[in-house]
């Protein structure tokens, strides 16, 4: 009789242990899903940031090419200024995003006084930038950033 009671009590202990472990697998699965979700959200955020940086890089590349076009035109004509028709056409290309321009683009060609340089600047409104850049000129031989823009590419070259 004693052995029967002991067997039954061992069975009850085993059943209690199984009941305690019954929800453990579910808890492990829930924790794994939460960790996987956090990792997946991190990867999505990383991909979004990489896309933003790619767009910013593309804008900088287009701005450099546009500024280079103006400098090449000045070198080809061997002049330190361009005609108003050429300047207007170039400024239209800078602001035309359908024709390799930059968003909100403003193109300027400046010759600061008492400086032996010409500054070609392409400024634009970068989508991924939240803070506006300073609009004042850094030195007397510099040009300020136009209104409603937060990024700029500047090329300076010595007047021949």
TrEMBL record:
It comes from the Bacteria. Keywords: Membrane, Transmembrane, Transmembrane helix. It holds the Pfam family N_methyl. The chain crosses the membrane at residues 21-46. InterPro entries: N_methyl_site. This is Prepilin-type N-terminal cleavage/methylation domain-containing protein.
